[in-house]
Amino acid sequence: MNVHEKPEALLPAVCSIGLHPWYLDEKTWKESFSQVKQLALQPEVLAIGECGLDTLCPTPFALQQTVFTEQVLLANTLNKPLIIHCVRAHAAVIQILQDLQVSVPVIFHGFNRNIHIAQQLLVHHYYLSFGKALFNEVVRKVFEEIPTHAIFLETDRAAISIEDVYSEAAKLKRENLTKFVQQIHQNYFRVFGIRFT
């Protein structure tokens, strides 16, 4: 994102904003984070993220931890939810969230791990967002065990429609699709304060 004199003009109707661990640079992250802080004040920005930790990307882990910490603090200050990118670093993410006494809702984006990790997140009342992984047999079994009040759904950039994701999710939950959609919308309102019409 290029920020000019009026960065708020670049924002869509609603969005989140954050520094993804894949794209951090030791020399420029502070300047980028300054832009994030400025844009995050806008009402269109509903959440901070994606942000988090990723042990498989080349970004130095210490840098990831530093920048993630700053974004958790920002979310707490602005009272905006966090959208977490986490790859094989769940224990470290939980530790930072707990150490900083995160006070806002936390959503783990693109969840595709096992039931043990899911339970570690649920005990802290975090949300899990599922997308294309719902079509993976192992994740399907995990999804069946997750309470609906802790679920979000997404497509990310997968070649699937959100309608297909909702349909699959409702089937796995053995729920009527309309009722299931209403339940997920309730989660959205609880976290973001916006109702679907």
Structural class: alpha/beta
DSSP strand tally: 6
Mean pLDDT: 93
Radius of gyration over all CA atoms, rounded: 17 Å
Number of helices: 7
CATH topology: TIM Barrel
CATH architectural arrangement: Alpha-Beta Barrel
* Domain count: 1
Q: Major sheet: order of its strands?
A: 1-2-3-4-5-6
Main beta sheet strand tally, sense and closure:
6 strands, parallel
Query: Quick one: CATH class?
Result: Alpha Beta
CATH homologous group name: Metal-dependent hydrolases
What gap, in angstroms, lies between the N and C termini?
Answer: 31 Å
Strand percentage lies at 5-15%
N to C succession of SSEs: EHEHEHEHEHEHH
What general outline do the C-alpha atoms trace? Answer: globular
Structure explained in plain terms:
By secondary structure, this protein is of the alpha/beta class. It has one domain (31-192): TIM Barrel. Helix content is 43%, strand content 15%. The chain contains seven helices and six strands. The chain has helices at 29-40, 61-78, 90-99, 115-122, 137-145, 162-173, 177-192; strands at 15-17, 45-54, 82-87, 106-108, 127-130, 151-153. Helix 1 packs parallel to helix 2. It starts with 14 loop residues before the first strand and ends in a 5-residue tail after the last helix. The model is unreliable at 1-5 (pLDDT under 50).
